[in-house]
Each structure stands twice: as structure tokens, then as C-alpha cells.
Amino acid sequence: MARRFGHTWWGKAWLEALENRALIDPNRLPRGRTYARQDRVRNLEVEPGLIRAYVEGTELYRSQLSVRPFSEEQWDRLLDVIVSRSAHAAALLTGELPPELDEAAREVGIELLPDAGDLGPECSCPDWAEPCKHAAALCYVVADLIDSDPFVLLLLRGRNRELVLGELRVRRSSALDLMAGARERPTPGTPAATAYRRKPDPVPPAPPVPELPGRPMRLVTEPPVDSGVVAADLLGLAADAGARAVAMLQGTGESGLDLTADEDLARRAAAVVASRHQVDDLTAGEDLARRAAASHREMDELAVAAGVDPLELRARALAWTHGGRAALAALDGTWEPPPELLVAARELLGPRARVRANVVTRGRRRLILDLDRIWWCQVADDDLGWVMAGPGFPDPADALIDI
Predict the structure, then answer these.
(1) pLDDT at residue 381, rounded to an integer
(2) By the 8 A CB rule, do 83 and 138 touch?
């Protein structure tokens, strides 16, 4: 049996708003529903007024849905309605949105559930329809979230569960103070013996490790003009931290907190190259030259911000890709090894090979021996100079790259 969406009355109302939004071109909704059933919506994020996700179509598209948030004055009216009857808050806490609360909110001019004009779908796909099938798939998945937790609906209206419950506690406390003539009340608590005998709640299972890092939240305000801080730079640092956190959870990376500034710069530059290659793989058939230019532009901006030469930074990014901090150390370190350690490398490169310190060179190839006695191969690049061509090996024959 096909998976259904919108099992509660408020979940159905959410989908009704979506369907009204799509009246101009309703053909995208069945495709979006199919995508949702096929679990093509990835890395869903919900924040005040906004939902984001990646949706798998012919490519991996970035889709989002904005929901019109309530004003401060509208929130005041809604919270007064909720606190007016204890049953309203109790129902929300048990995962219910009672029709009585919706009716009471409407009486004071508050529409809890969005109508077609409250929804703003966007997608990186080329489809002109609004919503496209990818944004529609996102809407259907959100219907499941709202079905199970009506606080998601309040989050989309601008405030999360903690803020709402905190405001309700303050208002309820004020109401009780007023009813009791502002008399001092004893602080409620649990007797120590009772608390000691109480069985602890089971530890909840760990959430699944995400496949991709989420996107940083947008800044509420721009940094001060005279602060020297650029909002885009802050978002870039946040995205980088998120990527490292996901890599650590997946067991494929480390925090990088022990890196020097030069090492971390090379790591970030290598991440720029890797992210562009990943996008190119996902978007076969698009203008790869344009994306390569975007990669160079981003690398140049990073080099300028760090005060280093862009070409040198590209070469160090390549080194980091092949061997991390060990490859950088091989680039930067010059030492005098015992002559017998260089014999094998000289034989590999032939009688015309030149030896200088720990480097054996012939033509457009050279082998470098680092302090850990690991061999690295470099090749000559017309733009970047000598660049690392592969990982390091104890045997120079394994490290040597044919060109």
C-alpha cells in the first residue's frame, strides 16, 4: 500500500495549503509525492520560518520552503490563548493540536495553519513551476513531521518548543500570582527519598549520523561595518566546522584543532577543490568550465584573505590532498640524509639525476625523502611549479609517478 501523508487534521490542512499553492500547475504534486515516498528527501533541516533539504532528482537539488512567521504582537495573542486553558498546552505536549485551540486562535485573528500565501517554495532545479516536484516532495515530508509534533508548526511560525514553553511558564506563573494576590508560594520540588528511589529514564538511542553536513543558519543581523568581519566568512567557517563534525561522526576525519595556521589553510583550500569536484560529479552535462572557474575564484579569495600567493596555495592544497600534514612537511623540510638512503632513488631516475640535500631530480620529476624516511614524488606544472603528484611510500619505486 502506498505511503500516505497528512494523517491528522492539521497535517491535512498543511497539504491543503500546498495544493492551493499549486493550483496553477498541479502536475508537479504527484511527482513530488512519489519522490517523498521513495525517500529522496535528504538532510532535512527545520528552523524558524524555514525548511531546507536536498532532494534527489536527475541531480541532487537544494530545495527550501519559507513559512511566514508571526510578529511579536501575534505571538503575544497566541500565547495568551494557549495559557487561557491548561488543556491547550497539555494537548500540545502530547503531540496534539486540538481544534478548540485553532478556533480560539482564529477568534483573536491568528491563523495557526498556513494558507497558500504563507508558503514560499524555492529550488535550485531549472523547473519554473511553483512548487516544483522537489519542493513538493519536501512539503509532503514536512507533513509527516507536523503530524507527529505540532511544535514543528510553531517553529515554522518563528519560535521553537523551548521558547514557547518558557513563555507559557512565565505567563502561567504571572496568572497564578495574580490569582493568589501575589502571595509568596513555596517552591515545588521532589522529596530527596522519592528522587533517590526513582528509576532513571532509559538513555535514548544516538541519532543517525548524517550523510552530509547541514547548512549554517542565516545571521539575524550583519556584523557591524567597522568590525572587519564579513558575514560570508562567518558562514564559511560554520560550514567548515559542520563538515569536520560530520566527518568525525562518520569516522572519516579529525577535528583539525591541532593544526597550525599554515596547515589549516592548506586543509581548507583542499576542501574547496574537493567540494567543486563533488559538485561536478553530481552535475554531469553542465558547464564544467564555469564550475572550475568558480573553484579558482574561491581559492583566490581564500589566498587573498590569508595573505598568500594563490598559486602557492593551490600547490599546497594538492599536497594536503595526497598526504595531509606529512606531505606539507615534505614540501617545507630540507635536510641532509645519509648518502646511502638516496641510492635507490638515483637508480630509479637514471644516471642524469641530480641530488641536492634530500631531493633527487631528473627532468620534470623529482623524489623527496622526508625526515620519517618516506618518499614523495613531485612533477613540474607550468603554472604551479613543483606539485605533489601522489601519496608517500617507504619505497621510492612505489612513490614514483610516470608522466
Answers:
(1) 87
(2) no
